[in-house]
Amino acid sequence: MYVSVKGGETAIEHSWGLLAAARRGDPALAELGVAQIREQLRLGVHRVMTEGSLYDPDLAALAIKQASGDLYEAVFLLRAYRTTLPRLGAARPLDTGTMAIRRRISAAFKDLPGGQVLGPTPDYTQRLLDFALAAEGSPAPVAPEDVPVDRTMPRVLDLLGREGLVEPERAAAIAPGAEPEPAPEPFDVTREPMGFPAGRDARLQVLARADEGWLLAMGYSTQRGYASSHPFAGEIRMGEVTVEFVPDELGFAVELGEITVTECQMINQFHGGHEVPPQFTRGYGLAFGECERKAMSMALVDRALRARELGEPVTAPAQDEEFVLSHGDSLESSGFVQHLKLPHYVDFQAELELVRRLRAGREGDRP
Question: Residue 261 forms beta bridges with which residues?
């Protein structure tokens, strides 16, 4: 017979001590510092900042240390801390067109204004284990000076836009000579519950916070034929952008500082319709720090989720916004799976008794 298991504060406190000891590891080895994690595990730090929706490399590194390298747990810690912060207002939209670029490539154009800027990337490495990295006390590598490129580097998609071959960034067309209408206030998924169908502004916010592995799988599925998608990486750029805020008492923008972001614009074919000529359409991704795979996956999924908007048939999981957006949050999905570790003794006892009665009734019916 299954019975309830009784525990108490002493057992929980002991588990905390075991966790702290496991996190520290061998005390004979030097302890890993937050600064070391921030500087040498930067890609993990940037992923935690993106999915935790809080740009603070020091706090993200601290969360990774506290979580013993479990990025899901680190995202949880950073999100939880984020909820304690006061909200002073909203920053102005980032102008990635003035980015101080450190990496900028296009798979659609070989020779483009400003050229291809490879930047820090493992794309051209052999993916072989470098045992020299295991040697302690080896001198630090000498890298060429990482100088940001001119902020006036043109966007690749603007080149197509001049010929009218790609859809405009604003969905609503502006008549010649008319003043553009002010952009509507974006939906904030952190302050209001999202409903379906969701606007693209809400979808992009959810995708930015979504688990990278989930987006990668969804984006990969679109490339394998599970959506009407044939993408080209129009432009991927990484660098620093300025964050500005307009205080109510001043009425003009104040520069708060710079953050590193990765932006991806995918180009997709579109056959057009009765009112729209054949043209290319856009998929968009933006992430904190150096999160290129995340930004690319986000752009692929963003384009897939625009199927209804563009009059395309919805036939694949990546085109189903309720399916994609409801299951991509790493905090929610991890929590819901891990809640199965919590006591379910009463529920299981009820099902156990039900199965026993059903089996007894079945055996009683046998001749």
Answer: 239, 288
**pTM reported for the whole predicted model:** 0.89
| Rounded-to-integer distance, Cα 351 and Cα 357, Å | 10
CA distances from 109 to 104, 115, 234, 336 (A): 12, 10, 8, 44
- The answer to whether 99 and 119 have CB atoms below 8 angstroms apart is no
For the chain, the first-to-last Cα distance in angstroms comes to 29
254 DSSP β-pair partners: 245
Nearest C-alpha neighbor of 270 from the set 257, 283, 253, 289 = 283
Quickly count: other Cβ atoms within 10 Å of residue 90's Cβ: 11
Cis peptide before 197 (omega within 30 of 0): yes
Per the CB < 8 A criterion, the answer to whether 235 and 155 are in contact is: yes
Question: SS3 for 255-288, per residue?
Answer: EEEEEEEEEEEEEEEECCCCCCCCEEEEEEEEEE
Per-residue pLDDT reduced to its tens digit, 268-294: 987 766 677 888 999 999 999 999 999
Cα atoms found within 13 Å of the Cα of residue 131, Cβ hemisphere only? 0
d(CA 99, CA 237): 8
Tokens of 196: 């379906």
What are the domain boundaries of the chain? 18-24+31-82, 96-120+149-169+194-335
Distances (CA, A) of 285 to 103, 128, 214, 330, 356: 15, 30, 14, 18, 53
pLDDT tens-digit readout, 27-79: 999 999 999 999 999 999 999 999 999 999 999 999 999 999 999 999 999 99
Question: What strands lie across the sheet with 279-288, from one edge to the other?
Answer: 100-105, 231-245, 254-270, 279-288
CA-to-CA distance for 344 and 33, rounded, in angstroms? 39
Q: Alpha carbon of 318 to those of 187, 247, 325, 337: distances in Å?
A: 22, 40, 10, 22
- Note the helical H segments in 186-250: 200-209, 212-223
The phi, psi pair for 296, rounded to 5°, reads: -65, -45
